Amino acid sequence: MTSVPRPNPDTGAAHERVYRTLRTQIMHGELNPGEALTIRGIGKTFDVSMTPAREAVRRLAAEGALTLSSSGRISAPDLSPERIEELAALRALLEPELAARALPRAHMALIDRLRAINARVSEFVAKQDAVGYLRTNLEFHRTLYLRAHAPAMLAMAETVWLQLGPTMRALYARKHRPDLQKHHRMILAALAAGDEPALRLAVRTDVTQGLKMISD
After folding, report:
1. Is the pLDDT of residue 179 over 70?
2. 68 has which bridge partners?
3. Average pLDDT over the chain, rounded to an integer
4. What is the pLDDT of residues 114-170, one digit of tens each?
5. How would residue 1 be classed by pLDDT, with cut points 50, 70 and 90?
6. Is 83's pLDDT higher than 80?
7. I need a labelling partner for 99 at 20 to 30 A (CA). Which of 47, 59, 107, 158 fits?
8. Could you tell me which residues come within 8 angstroms of residue 59 by beta carbon, excluding any fewer than 6 positions away?
9. Rounded to whole angstroms, how far apart are CA atoms 37 and 42?
10. 113-129: b or e for each residue (b if 16 or more CB lie within 10 Å)?
């Protein structure tokens, strides 16, 4: 009887570590749009063999976080204006619904936490730190949306953030805008008032106009 080889748990753990770290780096804009990667280079960076590096790349390519050409070239996504507009439209559909579902659980402790995160967003804006801005901006949104208790919807939103990451960082770095927090203040005011229509409008405005302010 032929024995079936069992998966190596060490390889699985290495693959998950590479995948999670690369995913976070891409989402936060730590890679430039179009930046080329290699399996060998990823393996060297993370001190893993080719197999976990290759599996991590395949998973990220399936999510749209990396582009994998027929020739095997791996790169961070470099989005066209049309693609940016499409992804912004997806955010405008998903995120107001997530915020509305979170509203019944938006107690004052959550609002205070969001205010503290938004203060850190302002600090990164003042420093013109694009990666720090992107990271804390997404933390603001994720912290609110986790209260929606809608994991499938949040996973879809995170996939959109993932695809936008490098392009968002590049756009922000090219054109510093000091007034990006005004939409967050609208969100906080709507949460404090328990006003669902105002909250939906504030989130939709944030995810569409905020991106437009950066890319114009």
Report:
1. no
2. 74
3. 88
4. 999 999 999 998 888 989 999 999 999 999 999 999 999 999 999 999 999 998 888
5. very low
6. yes
7. 59
8. 19
9. 7
10. ebeebbebbeebbeeee
Contact 191, 213 (CB under 8 A): no
| Residue 75, φ and ψ in degrees, nearest 5 | -150, 160
Helix (H, G, I), strand (E, B) or coil at 96: helix
Residues 215, 120: Cα–Cα separation, whole Å: 22
Radius of gyration for the chain, computed over Cα atoms and rounded to the nearest angstrom: 19
- DSSP conformational letter for 31: S
Q: In angstroms, rounded to a whole number, what is the distance separating the alpha carbons of residues 14 and 10?
A: 6
Question: What's the whole-model pTM score?
Answer: 0.87
Tokens of 140: 């603001």
Buried/exposed code over 32-43 (b: 16+ C-beta within 10 A; e: otherwise):
ebeeebebeebb
- Asked if residues 29 and 129 have their Cβ atoms less than 8 Å apart, the reply is no
Residue 51 structure tokens: 């197999």
Output the six-digit token pair for 151: 């994991």
